[in-house]
Amino acid sequence: MHLQWLVPAWAWPLIVLVAAACAVWAVRVYRRTVPDPGPRWRALLVGLRIAACIAVLVALVRPLLVVERTVREPAVVGVVVEDSGSMALADRDDRPTRWRQALALAAAIDSTVTAAGEGAEIVLLRGNGLEPLRAADLTSARIDTPRSVGSDLPALVARARQRLLTRPVRALAVLTDGHSDHDAVRGRPGEAPLWFVGVGDREGRADRSLADLRHPDRVQVGEPLVVELAVRQRGAAAAGDSLRVRLERGGETVDERVGPAGEFTRWELEWIPREPGLAVLEVAVDGLDNERFLANNRATLAVDVQKDQARLLLLGPQPGWDGRFLAQAALAEPRVGLSVVRPGPDGPVLADSLVSWRAPDTAAAWLDEWDGVVLLGSPAALLPDGGGELAAAVRQGLGLLVLGAEAAGGRGAVAWRGPLGELLPVTVELARTRLGEFAVTMAAGGRGHPVLADMQEAEGLTSLPPLREVVPVRRNDGARVLLEAGRRPVLVSGRPGAGRVLWFGGRRLWELAFWQRAGDDDATAARPGRQLIQQMLLWTALGDEAGGVSMLGRRLAFEEGEAIPVAVRWRDLRGDPVTGQPVTIDVRREGEGESSGQRHVLRPDPERAGVSRGILPPLPPGRWLLEPRGESDPPVVGAAREIVVTEAASEAAQVRQDRRTLRMVAGRLGGRVVDGGDVGDRDALLTGIAALDLEPRRAERQARFEPAATAWWLMIALGLLAAEWLLRRRRGLL
Asked: Residue 612 to residues 49, 564, 609, 624: CA-CA distances in angstroms?
């Protein structure tokens, strides 16, 4: 034991000087005190004040009491049992589960370690490498069977080594069936010996299982959903054996195929959805005779069925290049279907079929038939009512794209008047376009707008050609200028009522699609002009989905016991990311009220502004609604996403001990593989553990105590000052 001081050596003379000054000051004060307390009381009061000053100075110099001692640390053997659902399987009716086999091996290792070393012990841990390790004991672990989904053996070893970092670990034994859902070739060898003890049947019984299941996450109503899968069969198939695969929905078979059985066969199933929403389907393959593990013969998939393509109508005065390139842009986007109407000899006709066309006569009819309208110049010849009902439909939610520089015959701009003119986000100043070379640049309001998504970066707008003709316009109140040409608004958005309007005031839109910089390879060069045209159509048809909170990602099906990753994006009405505000997500069962759910707080993503992420705890099987919320005043609530949680099937599909993965992981981490079900291997494992140096380790330990940093020391200083004050009051001193 010794005493240390935490102040530097150069401060000691100053501290001594301060202490002496405090003593001199206390003596002088009490020599002049009225009335005179007398020699006896003066000495006591001076002593109390000096003691209080010294207590304060001692707290400043921070004395440290160090006590050193030698301890004997018992040797430790780490035993980690893989905690995943596959360990709860029993390979045969007459054998215990893999979990109980592993616990029996852990008990044998415990007995060997206890007998081999003085005070040596095992540290029993359980985990799957994806979640923090948990301490376990042999008694309670028999009751608490594993249910976790997934496993990562290299991460499991790394977590165990980190957990036992401060202990004298002599060896580490991992009891597992060998399955790892993550890259097995990771990690590095450690200092202590490492054993991978495999449990479960090495050979495995004859089994038929689904493999390599593929399907789209989203389809449209009426679009065929094609499910690709493979069937893997272990065990020789007899001549003439056949198998049947089925696609089921709600317990009814919607498609099935029958064919010859083999070691590995591929199949395709098909279903055509008829209504939008979350569709939950199951893929199943008939099992073998007396097949033990049937859970891997079925798989659940969830698909987001969306409504049919958004319907766009292009009203054009006559055929032209702009109309053709707008049609090509629509063909390149599967979410949009474009119909073109132009004047015919006997009235408006559909351009693709020359069938006569009649404009809807009410706003409701416009909304029922179309999601957006593109005006290629003046629509006067195509709309008998002058566009009054179309304008009313736009105010109620219809999208409108106006290419204002295109007039009949291409002779100049149209002075927009009437109901449609009142919707425009700009006011046309002149009747004709201005000629010149106008470079296209982004306006301050263009950043974050969906029409210009992914075009702000390098080689985006800088790759657009200059415009030769621009309509002179003035931005109206509430409108948002996205692009400028020669410092004039050329692409402007507005929101009349519930609708949306986009104005483009440059002529020859098709030149944007053709434009390519000198030196760019034609096969690989980016075409931002075509991208711009396509995104203008998308925004007109689908609207601005950038505002508010919305969930990212497309996965809709999860397994019981599996953690659920979620990501939420929050943007304001201008499309800019919202930061610094908490984001939560409500989780509740389908059909239950909001009060019955759970609320989880998400954390901001440091790499993406406006995006928050989190991991939801595993959910029981069933349909669930995830509703994102931006916690502001008032809260911003996003559209709820429906997911489905199925019974755990991936763990039940692990029907045997995976020796190949065990050898790969052991080779990377410098370990050895033994078969826990083989008597010879088990005896060799216990013999190797008994041969370890399991004697206690001597270690030097230090106990540090800083008395002046405690509350007791402060109480002593305050007590001295209080005692002095009470004595002064008692003697009547000033």
From this structure: 59, 14, 8, 20
